[in-house]
Specification:
Radius of gyration: 21 Å
CATH topology of the largest domain: Spore Coat Polysaccharide Biosynthesis Protein SpsA, Chain A
CATH class of the largest domain: Alpha Beta
CATH superfamily of the largest domain: Spore Coat Polysaccharide Biosynthesis Protein SpsA, Chain A
Largest sheet: 9 strands, mixed
Number of domains: 2
Structural class: alpha/beta
Strand content: 15-25%
Order of helices and strands: EHEHEHEEHEEHEHHEHHHHHH
Number of strands: 9
CATH architecture of the largest domain: Alpha-Beta Complex
Number of helices: 13
Length: 325
């Protein structure tokens, strides 16, 4: 069995949450792993005896104490630097991996040697019970990154050889470190994405998450990441139009000119299609217009019923692309 490195950053994670997360890894049906717990200077949970209760005598588990607070991205990079597995599995300290999570991901990666990043579905619990379902194939995932991160970070499995080959690491200057890294990966033409159509992880929703406490900062950074990604795809469109499109994608309550949005979407779709191989362009266009339609429906649900007309146009373009694929 190949060795897998599970990387789990933690900072003041409640004891019971951390215990459940660690137990979910210890109880995996796949047992050839190392679990690296990166303690980022926790101040509320430093009792050695409590740590020992969680870890037990399991030799597969190591605690790495950061010399100074590095944040999530810095802690993840520490984990990458210290990992020796063929695959890197991401895990948050307050989530729960299903028992066959690692086995499913390793089996898929071993039988699909062209895939560099593998995600999966998540089932939320706590303040929400929704199921998050990312796009499944490389073309659709690359397309979705234009609109949003789209890949549940704690479900990610990465091929370590690919990270080393392209010197890929997390940027420590952004809060949306996962989104920023995936867009950099997507700009590597040989990099391949995929996702499993099954729930791999239970994702805890609670008030203390970064996504709830630093929304304004993450919104601004998310806008910058989208702008950078689209610009690097070689799109021939001015920044005013790009900002209009990005704000439309990110802010469903903001009034917009539907004719202008549809024109911008058409330009973006046409321009970015050049990034894909000829035999992939119809699939890309189909994915693009399907996601545009979903975004328009979301705007309609948020109170702007006129967006249903735009959703209809986008859906029609999606069907047209499908017929020509």
């Amino acid at each position: 069995m190949v060795l897998v490195s599970v990387i789990m950053p933690t900072y003041n994670t409640p004891y019971e949450h951390l215990k459940c997360a660690v137990e979910s890894i210890k109880n995996q049906t796949y047992n050839s792993f190392e679990l690296l717990i990166i303690n980022d200077g926790s101040t509320e949970f430093n009792d050695v005896n409590e740590w020992n209760k969680i870890i037990g005598s399991d030799p597969r588990i190591r605690i790495i104490n950061n010399s100074h607070k590095k944040g999530v991205a810095g802690s993840l990079n520490t984990g990458l630097d210290n990992s020796i597995g063929k695959y890197i599995i991401r895990m948050d300290a307050d989530d729960i991996s299903l028992p066959d999570r690692i086995n499913k991901q390793v089996q898929y990666m071993e039988s699909h040697e062209d895939i560099d990043l593998l995600a999966g579905y998540t089932k939320c619990f706590g303040a929400s019970n929704k199921t998050v379902k990312p796009e499944l194939n490389d073309t659709s995932i690359r397309t979705a990154l234009i609109f949003q991160c789209g890949l549940p970070h704690p479900t990610i499995c990465l091929r370590k050889e690919t990270l080393d080959k392209y010197d890929l690491f997390y940027s420590e200057d952004v809060q949306s470190e996962d989104y920023e890294l995936w867009t950099r990966c997507a700009l590597i033409k040989d990099f391949r994405f995929a996702a499993l159509p099954s729930v791999l992880l239970k994702y805890r929703i609670h008030e203390g998450q970064v996504s709830n406490t630093r929304k304004e900062l993450m919104t601004n950074q998310g806008r910058a990441i989208r702008l950078n990604y689209i610009n690097h795809l070689g799109i021939n469109i001015n920044n005013d139009e790009l900002y209009c499109f990005i704000d439309y994608v990110m802010m469903p309550y903001k009034p917009v000119n539907l004719k202008r949005i549809y024109k911008i979407e058409s330009t973006i779709c046409s321009e970015i299609s050049k990034w894909f191989a000829v035999n992939q362009r119809s699939k890309y266009m189909m994915s693009f217009w399907r996601i545009c339609a979903k975004k328009s429906v979301l705007h309609a649900v948020k109170g702007q019923a006129k967006h249903l007309f735009l959703a209809f146009l986008c859906f029609f373009r999606c069907i047209f692309s499908f017929m020509h694929s």
